TrEMBL record, chain A:
Keyword Transmembrane: yes
Membrane-spanning residues: 41-60, 72-91, 112-130, 142-162, 169-185, 191-211
Species of origin: Amycolatopsis albidoflavus
Protein name (Swiss-Prot/TrEMBL): Transporter
Record's keyword terms, sorted: Membrane, Transmembrane, Transmembrane helix
Coiled-coil region(s): none
Automatic annotation (TrEMBL), chain B:
InterPro entries from the UniProt entry: WH-like_DNA-bd_sf, WH_DNA-bd_dom, WH_DNA-bd_sf
Domain Winged helix DNA-binding residue range list: 22-97
Top-level division of the source organism's lineage: Bacteria
Organism: Amycolatopsis halotolerans
UniProt name for this protein: Winged helix-turn-helix domain-containing protein
Pfam families to which the protein is assigned, alphabetical: HTH_34
Amino acid sequence: MNNDAGDPVEDEGEPLSAAESLELIARQNERTRRELRVSPARLFAVWAFTWLVGWGLVYLSDDRSAALLPGWVAGIVVAVLMVGAIFYSAWHGSKPSRGIRGPSRRIGAMYGWSWGISFAAMCLIDIRVTKLLPEGSDLVPLLWSGTSLLLTGTLYLAGGMLWQDMRQYFLGGWIIVCSGASVLVGVPGNFLVLSLAGGGGFAVAALVYVVRPRG
Amino acid sequence: MAELPELDPVIHAQARLRVTVALAGLRPADQITFPRLQQLLEMTAGNLSTHLRKLEDAEYVEITKAYEHRTPVTLVRLTSKGRAAFESYTKALQRLLDAGT
């Protein structure tokens, strides 16, 4: 074990009173909890921003809504925001298991990989189907928004089950409702569903974790 | 009046109490690396080692040495005996507080 020679060992100190001990326990508990159970509030806020702004711009770029900006500009903004949010999620997700070995870390890693594996397969399927559809078909955005929302929602359901977290489970359920709605309203309304209902759902989730951090 | 409970001397010392609390915050089968524990507690390595050894002598803590990518890592976890001791310690504190000491 690391034992620096000559390192002064903290003496036993003054004996603590019961109240002081309990206070010390509460303080250290709070710190440990903050470090090991990272609140997803910030993560959900990042996704809320990404969806509200990104999909909002895509909706506003459509000729049938406002045509405020060229579609390719909105497309680039969405892509950049998405890639940024994905990298942030991966970093955020690996934070609590740093220096931890055992079931928690294994569950976290398996959950993280579930996102990667299932989204890779979804992209493969969607790209293949996109190629079979006529160019510029409205079915293309519906396919992508429907499948990606469904998968996102399902993975949050799984996360809710794994960590016994009803808040996450509800978010998953809501995103799945959005998935169905996005397909039903058609283009460009599906982008509005993604932005307001999807992004809004993440914003509410972030808020819930701030207001009720212990669930 | 009920007799006042004795506080476990292994845990009832500021530094070791903090170590125990931090380890009790992990899920039962999880282990934590020495540097991460050190960072959670903001203790020097020597200090933490000394207190861990005392906790290990009481069989409250289990220390394992493993190799990850040929690098040695020291892993620490609270034993079930340690977890139980911490639980009865907090219960004893509560009783002392209720007794008005």
